[in-house]
C-alpha cells in the first residue's frame, strides 16, 4: 500500500486548490464506494429516463434561430416582415425545358402543374406566390389608346400556336425577362415566399419536411416530364443540411469503432475498453435527453455535439485506464485501484472539464440562436461527463478491474527503454527549451502575419455550408448564369410618414441613394418604387423617354403608384424598400455595401425619409457578419481569461499558468492562419472552433503539469520528473489527442461543408494542442520555473 499512499500525497500536494477540495473529495470517495449498488441503480434509472427523452428528439431549424435576432438590422426586418416576406425567407424554383424553350404547350402545362403543386404545400405564403400563371404577374404596354395590361398567360389558354405567340409577346412586354424568365428563354421561375409559422396549425415551419416535400412533389415528380428542376433559397439550404446530417449516425458508428480500436491497442484490455465506451455512450444519451427536456431540437449545428461529448468523455477516461493499470501492477486490489483513480483524477479532471465548459459557455456571447443552443448543449454534455466519468466509471472499474493482458502490457511498457520519451524530456533542459521557445515564437510570428488575411463572413459563392459540387450549389450557379436578377439582395427600408412613401422628397432621396449604391463595387443594379414609377410615367405619356423621370406633381405620382406592384410599399405607404442586387455575398462585398449604405443614411435621413438597414438575404448575412466581428474578440478574451483563472486557481502560480496557456495561444493563432490559407472566413460555423479548441486543449496541460508537479515534489530534477511524467500521463495525453481527433475526423467526409471545415480545424487544434503541451510545457517550465534545492533536498517552485 506504500504506492497508493505516495500517490495520494503527490496529488494532495499539487496546489492550494486541492487542499480546499480535500474535504469534498474525501466525502465523495467514502460514500461513492460505500454505496456502489445504489450508485449503479441511480445511473440505470436515469439512463432509462434520458434514453426515452432522447428518442423523442427531432430535427429542428428555424429562420429566426439562424440569424442574430437582437441586431438592429434584423429587428428592422422583423418590424416589416409581412411587407418584406417576398424579399426575405423565400425559395425560387427554376423549371428548365430540356428540349427547346418555354414557349410550348407541354412546358407551360407542366409549369402550371408545378405552380399549383407548390401552392398547396404547407408553409407557402400563397398570396405572394409568383409564376407566369399567377394573376399577380402582369404585362403592361402603351398604345395610342392608353395603357393596356393583363395576365401573361391569358384566360382560355389552349396551347395553340396563336396563344403561344401571345404568351411570348406578353413575356416580352412584362419586363420579367431576367427575373421570372431566363435570359435565353429556356426556363422560368416560380417564386415562393414562406411563412415561418403556419396560420392554420400555428406550428413552426418544419424545414426538413418542407424540403422533403419539394423533392418528392416537385423535383422527383416533374423531372420525368421533360423539364429539369433547380431549387434555391434559405429553406432549401437548411433542408439539405438536415438531409446531409442524416449520415451522422454512420459517422458516429465509425467514430465509436475507431475509438474502440485505439483503446484496445493502448490498453490490451477488453473489459476496461467496454466500460469506458459504455460510460461515454451513456454521456451522449444523457446529453441528448437533457437537451430534449430543455425544449431544444437537433439543428444542423448542435447535431455535432454528441461527437464532442463522446470524444471528450473517452479522452478523460484514458487517464482512468492508465492510472488503474499502473496501480494494479503494484499489487493493489480492484477496489483500492478504483479509489486511487478517483482520488488522483477527481480534482484535475474536474478542473479540466470546467475549462471545457468555459470554452463552450463563452459562445453565449454570440447572439445567434443556433450558436447559443450549441453552447448550452455542449455545456450540458460536459456536465454529464463529470457524472459518468468521475462517478460511474470508477465504480464500474472497481467491479471489473483490468485484465491480465493489460497488466502484462503495462509491465512491458515499464521495461521499455522509452527512447522517444527520453528525447522529448530533453526539452526540460535550458538549451532545448530555448530552441523550442524560439521555434514557437517564429511559428507564432508566421501565423500572425498569415492570419491578417482572415476575413469575417463567407468567401465563396453559393451556399458555403454545402460543398461546391453539391446539387444546391449547382442549382444556384444555374440561376446566377441564366437570370439577371441576382439571388443576393440587400434591402434598405425607407421609412416615411403614413401616406408619403411616394412623395417627391422621398423620391429624390431614394433616387440619389440608388445612384450612390450603383457606383459601389460589387453592386450590379438597384430597383425601387420610383424605378418602376419612372417607367409608368413615361408609358402614360406615349412612351416618351423624356418623361421617364421623377415628378413633383402629386397627382401624377399617385396615378403612377397605383400601377406599381404592392411589394414596393406597405399598406399605409409609410415604408418603401430599395433593392440592391449584389454580384455575390462575399465578406468584402457586404462590408462595402454596408459602409456605403450607413454613410448615406447618416447624412441624408430626414423626418420625411429615414433610411434604415437591412433586409434581404444579403442584409441578414451582413448583420450576422457584424455580430460575429463584435463577438469574436469578446469571446476570445472571455475564454482565455476564465480558463487562465481556473488554471491559476488550480496551481496558485502565475508562472505555471503561463506554461499551460501560452501553447494554447500559439495554436489559436495557427488555426486562424490555416483558416486564412484555406479560404475559410470567420463565421457561424468556424468561430465556435476556436473556443472549443482552447477549452478542450487546456486539458492536456492540466493533466501533464499535475503529474509533473507530483514528481517535482518528490525531489526529482525537472528533466527526470518530466521523463517520469511522460511515461505515465504523457502517453495518456498523446492518446487523448488522438482520441479527440478521431472523434471529429469522420466529419471530413460529410456532405455538409461547414461540418467538414469544423472537423478539419478541430483535428488540427486537438493534435497541435497535444504536441504543444508535450513540448512547450517542459520548455517554458525550464525557463520560467528555475528549480532550487534546499538542504533537505526538496524542490521549491516560485509562487
UniProtKB/TrEMBL annotation:
Record-annotated Membrane transport protein MMPL domain positions: 180-419, 487-784
InterPro entries with a match to the protein in the record: MMPL_dom (IPR004869), Mycobact_MmpL (IPR050545)
Localization: Cell membrane
Transmembrane segments: 37-55, 247-266, 273-295, 301-318, 345-368, 374-407, 432-450, 633-651, 658-678, 684-705, 726-749, 761-785
Alphabetical keyword list: Cell membrane, Membrane, Transmembrane, Transmembrane helix
SUPFAM superfamilies, alphabetized: Multidrug efflux transporter AcrB transmembrane domain
A cellular component annotation (GO) from this entry: plasma membrane
Protein's membrane topology: Multi-pass membrane protein
Pfam families: MMPL
Protein's recorded name: MMPL family transporter
Gene source species: Pseudoduganella ginsengisoli
Amino acid at each position: 500500500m506504500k504506492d497508493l499512499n505516495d500517490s495520494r500525497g503527490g496529488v494532495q500536494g499539487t496546489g492550494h486548490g486541492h487542499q480546499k477540495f480535500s474535504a469534498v473529495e474525501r466525502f465523495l470517495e467514502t460514500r461513492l464506494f460505500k454505496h456502489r449498488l445504489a450508485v449503479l441503480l441511480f445511473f440505470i434509472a436515469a439512463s432509462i429516463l434520458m434514453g426515452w427523452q432522447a428518442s423523442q428528439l427531432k430535427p429542428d431549424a428555424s429562420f429566426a434561430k439562424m440569424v442574430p435576432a437582437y441586431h438592429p438590422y434584423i429587428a428592422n426586418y422583423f418590424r416589416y416582415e409581412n411587407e418584406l416576406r417576398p424579399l426575405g425567407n423565400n425559395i425560387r424554383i427554376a423549371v428548365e425545358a430540356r428540349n427547346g424553350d418555354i414557349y410550348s404547350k407541354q412546358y407551360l402545362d407542366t409549369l402550371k402543374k408545378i405552380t399549383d403543386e407548390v401552392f398547396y404545400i404547407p408553409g407557402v405564403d400563397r398570396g405572394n406566390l409568383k409564376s407566369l400563371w399567377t394573376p399577380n404577374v402582369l404585362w403592361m404596354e402603351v398604345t395610342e389608346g392608353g395603357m393596356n395590361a393583363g395576365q401573361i398567360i391569358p384566360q382560355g389558354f389552349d396551347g395553340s400556336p396563336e396563344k403561344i405567340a401571345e404568351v411570348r409577346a406578353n413575356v416580352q412586354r412584362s419586363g420579367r425577362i431576367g427575373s421570372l424568365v431566363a435570359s435565353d428563354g429556356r426556363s422560368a421561375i416560380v417564386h415562393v415566399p414562406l411563412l415561418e409559422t403556419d396560420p392554420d396549425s400555428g406550428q413552426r415551419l418544419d424545414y426538413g419536411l418542407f424540403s422533403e416535400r419539394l423533392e418528392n412533389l416537385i423535383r422527383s415528380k416533374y423531372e420525368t416530364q421533360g423539364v429539369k428542376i433547380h431549387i434555391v433559397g434559405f429553406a432549401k439550404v437548411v433542408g439539405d443540411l438536415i438531409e446531409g446530417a442524416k449520415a451522422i449516425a454512420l459517422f458516429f458508428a465509425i467514430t465509436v469503432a475507431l475509438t474502440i480500436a485505439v483503446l484496445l491497442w493502448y490498453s490490451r484490455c477488453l473489459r476496461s475498453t467496454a466500460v469506458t465506451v459504455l460510460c461515454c455512450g451513456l454521456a451522449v444519451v444523457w446529453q441528448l435527453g437533457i437537451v430534449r427536456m430543455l425544449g431544444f431540437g437537433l439543428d444542423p449545428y448542435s447535431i455535432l455535439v454528441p461527437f464532442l461529448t463522446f470524444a471528450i468523455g473517452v479522452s478523460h477516461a484514458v487517464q482512468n485506464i492508465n492510472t488503474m493499470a499502473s496501480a494494479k501492477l503494484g499489487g493493489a486490489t480492484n477496489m483500492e485501484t478504483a479509489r486511487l483513480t478517483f482520488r488522483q483524477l477527481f480534482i484535475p479532471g474536474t478542473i479540466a472539464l470546467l475549462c471545457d465548459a468555459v470554452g463552450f459557455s463563452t459562445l453565449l456571447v454570440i447572439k445567434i440562436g443556433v450558436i447559443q443552443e450549441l453552447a448550452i448543449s455542449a455545456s450540458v454534455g460536459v456536465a454529464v461527463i463529470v457524472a459518468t466519468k468521475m462517478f460511474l466509471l470508477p465504480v464500474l472499474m472497481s467491479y471489473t478491474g483490468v485484465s491480465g493482458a493489460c497488466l502484462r502490457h503495462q509491465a512491458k511498457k515499464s521495461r521499455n527503454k522509452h527512447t522517444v520519451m527520453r528525447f522529448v524530456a530533453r526539452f526540460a533542459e535550458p538549451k532545448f527549451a530555448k530552441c523550442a521557445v524560439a521555434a514557437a515564437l517564429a511559428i507564432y510570428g508566421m501565423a500572425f502575419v498569415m492570419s491578417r488575411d482572415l476575413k469575417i463572413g463567407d468567401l465563396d459563392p453559393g451556399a458555403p455550408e454545402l460543398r461546391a459540387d453539391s446539387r444546391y450549389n449547382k442549382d444556384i450557379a444555374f440561376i446566377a448564369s441564366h437570370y439577371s436578377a441576382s439571388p443576393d439582395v440587400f434591402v434598405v427600408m425607407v421609412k416615411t410618414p403614413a401616406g408619403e412613401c411616394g412623395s417627391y422628397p422621398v423620391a429624390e432621396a431614394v433616387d440619389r441613394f440608388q445612384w450612390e449604391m450603383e457606383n459601389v463595387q460589387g453592386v450590379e443594379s438597384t430597383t425601387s418604387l420610383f424605378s418602376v414609377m419612372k417607367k409608368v410615367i413615361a408609358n402614360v405619356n406615349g412612351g416618351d423617354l423624356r418623361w421617364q423621370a421623377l415628378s413633383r406633381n402629386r397627382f401624377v405620382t399617385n396615378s403612377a403608384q397605383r400601377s406599381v406592384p404592392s411589394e414596393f410599399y406597405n399598406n399605409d405607404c409609410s415604408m418603401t424598400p430599395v433593392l440592391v442586387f449584389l454580384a455575390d455575398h462575399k465578406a468584402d462585398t457586404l462590408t462595402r455595401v454596408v459602409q456605403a449604405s450607413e454613410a448615406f443614411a447618416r447624412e441624408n435621413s430626414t423626418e420625411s425619409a429615414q433610411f434604415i438597414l437591412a433586409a434581404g438575404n444579403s442584409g441578414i448575412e451582413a448583420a450576422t457578419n457584424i455580430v460575429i466581428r463584435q463577438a469574436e474578440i469578446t469571446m476570445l478574451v472571455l475564454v482565455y481569461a476564465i480558463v487562465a483563472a481556473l488554471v491559476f486557481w488550480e496551481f496558485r502560480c502565475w508562472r505555471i499558468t503561463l506554461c499551460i496557456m501560452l501553447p494554447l495561444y500559439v495554436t489559436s493563432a495557427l488555426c486562424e492562419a490555416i483558416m486564412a490559407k484555406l479560404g475559410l472566413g470567420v463565421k457561424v460555423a468556424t468561430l465556435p472552433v476556436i473556443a472549443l479548441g482552447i477549452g478542450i486543449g487546456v486539458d492536456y496541460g492540466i493533466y501533464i503539469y499535475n503529474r509533473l508537479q507530483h514528481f517535482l515534489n518528490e525531489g526529482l530534477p525537472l528533466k527526470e520528473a518530466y521523463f517520469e511524467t511522460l511515461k505515465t500521463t504523457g502517453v495518456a495525453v498523446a492518446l487523448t489527442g488522438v482520441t479527440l481527433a478521431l472523434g471529429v475526423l469522420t466529419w471530413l467526409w460529410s456532405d455538409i461543408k461547414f461540418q467538414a471545415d469544423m472537423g478539419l480545424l478541430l483535428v488540427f487544434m486537438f493534435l497541435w494542442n497535444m504536441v504543444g503541451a508535450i513540448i512547450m510545457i517542459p520548455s517554458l517550465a525550464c525557463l520560467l520555473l528555475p528549480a532550487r534545492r534546499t538542504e533537505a533536498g526538496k524542490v521549491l517552485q516560485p509562487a
